[in-house]
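SAMPLE LOG
Freezer: B-3
Tube label: C17
Construct: single chain, 144 aa
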Amino acid sequence: MRVRFSRLAGITCIVGAAVFGLLALLSASVSFVGAMTPVAFLGFGIAVLTRSYLIVGEDAVIVKALIGPAQETYGLGPADVVEFEGKRVFLVGRSGRHRLRGVTGWLASSRDWAAFRAWAERRNARSSSATSDDCRPRGGPHAA
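STRUCTURE (predicted):
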């Protein structure tokens, strides 16, 4: 299952790019940074609208970077539990409770976030009697 970024966040970035672009065009003098701001907002907006936020499988949750190939993989053992505390996500296993870094509900599409929560509830119901593997990150820049 793929969880996409919120369309609202992407559209907001693109509208911000248009506003800053118009301001740069109407300004008498614009610095390089001022001229690049609309380009950066446009790039973030396009990335938010086209990239997946999370990829969820039975044995792993992959958190994708907004820009670039970086990703962080969290392994899921048979007895590991996915918990939600507000809009944050935690993996609880034999090695303890680990927060999925960079994962919050407000950045996700509301429909995809609801499907992710439903998947977690079904998985938690199935995993209540199994043994646990390690749920620490397996890859990415913050891996232990």
